[in-house]
Amino acid sequence: MSLLEVRGLTTAFRTERGEINAVEDITFDIDEGEILGIVGESGSGKSVTALTIMGLLPQPPARVAAGSVRFRGETLTGMSEPRLERIRGSGISMVFQEPMTSLNPVFTIGEQIMETVRAHEKATPRELRDRAVEMLDKVGIPSAAKRLGDYPHQLSGGQRQRVMLAIALACRPKLLIADEPTTALDVTIQAQVLDLLMDLRDEFGMAVMIITHNMGVIAETADRVLVMYAGRIVEQAPVVRLFERPEHPYTRGLLECVPTLEQDTERLAAIPGSLPEPGRRPPGCRFAPRCRWRIDACRTGLPPLVEQEPGHASACIRAAEIAAQIGAA
Amino acid sequence: MAGIALRRLLGALPVLLIVSLITFALLRLIPGDPSSVIGGPSATADQLAQIRRNLGLDEPLPMQLVHWYAGLLQGNLGRSLLMGQGVVEVTFERLPVTLGLSLYALVITLVAGLASGIVAALRQNTWVDQLAMMVAMLGISVPNFFLGLLGIIFFAVKLGWLPTGGYVPFSQDPWEWFRTTTMPAVSLAMLQMGLLARITRSTMLEVLRQDYIRTARAKGLPGRQVVVKHALANALIPITTVIGIIVSLLISGSVVTETLFSIPGMGQLLTQAVLNRDYPMVQGGLLLTTVFLVLVNIMVDICYAFLDPRVRYDGK
Questions:
Q1: What domain range includes position B258?
Q2: Considering only CB atoms, which chain B residues are within 8 Å of A56?
Q3: pLDDT, tens digit, 9 for 90 and up, residues A235-268
Q4: Topology given in CATH for the domain delimited by A32-52+80-214
Q5: The complex's ipTM?
Q6: Range list for CATH 3.40.50.300 in chain A
C-alpha cells in the first residue's frame, strides 16, 4: 500500500456552460518518503489535483465526479469535514504559491504556528511555544525565539515562505504538498527555499508532492514526475528517465523550453499555440493541435496512458516511435 | 497608541472651530431672534429692543462671536435663554438620555447587523442570505419614523405590551427604562442594522476568498475557528470604520426618534432650542455633541490600531 493512492480522480466544476472537468482520470501513487513532481503549464490541473486531495475546493461549484483519493488506507474523497480537518495539517500539509498573502496579517507568526499544533495535539502553552521556536529554527529563521511575536508584514517573501513551511511541518505530516512553493520568490531565494525543502524532507522523512511549471525545479528535487496537460496526465516516469527519454511530444516541448548554456540557437524553443480552455478542448488527443508529430489518428479518441516500460507511461499513440528516434539520436 | 490619540485630538480642533462657525452663521441666517419668543406676541418694538440689548444681540455679529469664543475659552458656554439654566448643565442632564438610547440601539445594531451579515456571507445565495438581505434592505429604505409609528400602533396600541412613549431614567427603574426605550431603540437601529449587515456580508465574502483563509483550512483548523478567528479578525478592520459612522448616525437619528416617542434627550432639546432661537443653547449643545462625536471617532481610530498590526507599527 502506498502512502497516497489516487485512482481515476475526476474533479468537475459547475459553470455557466455546464459542468466541466478540470482534471480527468488522474491516477498515481506516492510512496513514503518519495518526492513526486507534478509539472505542467498554468491551467493544466496541477493545483486542482492538489486541492482535491486536500478537500479544499469549495463544493459547489467543485465536485469529485469520479475516482478516489486514499491516504494511508483511508478514503479522503467523500470524507466528512471534521474527519478531514483532523488529517489536514497533521497527516497531509500544504504550502502555497503566494507567501505574501498566505499568512494571516493580523496574527503573529508564533500564533499561526502554535494554533496548528493546538488543533491537532494536546500541549501546554509552554510546549506550544517551544515547538514554534523549534520549527522557526528548523526553517532557518535566525533568533527564532525573538521572532515569535512578529507579524507577517515584518518579514520578507522568502522568510514568509519559511514560516509557511514551519506551519506545514509543525505536526510532522507524512505528506507535504508544495504548490509552486518558489514561483513568487526571487531567483536567489528560490534556490534557498528548495534546498531547505530538501533538507526538511531528509530530516522529517516525509513524502513531498511538488507542483511546478519549472523543469529545473523538477530536475533538482523530484524522484518521479507526472506531466499534466489540459487536465490529464500525459506522461509519468522516474526523473532521470523522463529527462533522458521523454516519450510524449508535450514533455519534449517542455524540456526544449528550458534554456541551456550549451545551446547555440539564437532563440529559445517554445511550444506553439496555447493550452485549450477546459470548455474548448479538442476531440482526441488534447495536445494534437500544438503537436508537430500529429497524425490523423490523433484526432480520434483520447490516447490512453500506456506503460511502455515499467514505471514509465505516456499517453501518445506515437510514443514508441518518438522514443526510438531519441534513442537513435 | 497614546501618540495616535494625542495627534487626533489636536487634529480635531479645526473641526470644532468650523462646526462652531457654521452653527453661529446658520442660526443668524434664520429669520427671527429670541427676543420675540421671550417677549411674547404682545411685546412692543421698544420692549423687543430692550430684550435684545440685554442679551447682547444688538452688537455687531463679529463681536457676538468674539464674546462667545471668549466665554468658551473660560469654560463658560452661557445660559439657555429660555430655560435660564447653564448650557453645560442642561446638556449634561439630557445627553445621557440620548447616549443611553443610542447605546442600546448600537447594541441592537451590532448584534443583529454583524450576525445577519456573517450568516448571509456563510450561506451566500441561499434563502437565509436572501432573507437577511431583504430585512436589511427594508431597514435601509423604510424611514425610521415610519417604522416607529408602525411599532407604536402594533406593540403599544394593539397589543399593549409597551408604552406609546415617555421615558423613565435607568437609574430610577431599569425595567421601565427598558420598556420605554426598546421600541425607540429598535426603530432607531433599523437603518444602521441594515447598513451594517450589508457591509459585513460583503466584507466577509471578500475576506473568505483570501489566501490566508485557505491556509487556515489547510492547517486543519475547525471551520468555526476559521470563520470566527481568521476571517472575522480581518473583516472587523473595515467594519470598525463603518461602526464609527453608525454611532454618528445614531446620535443624529435620535432627533426624530426622540420627538416621536417624547423622550427628553439631546435631540428634543436641540430641536426646541432651534425653534425658539435659543442661540447659546444650540451653539453650546451642538459643540458639546461634536466634541463627543470626535471622541468616538478617535476611539475608532484606536480600535483600528488595535485590530490591525500594520497600522499599529506605522503609527510608531
A1: 93-314
A2: 214, 217-218
A3: 999 988 888 888 888 888 888 777 665 655 555 5
A4: Rossmann fold (3.40.50)
A5: 0.85
A6: 32-52+80-214
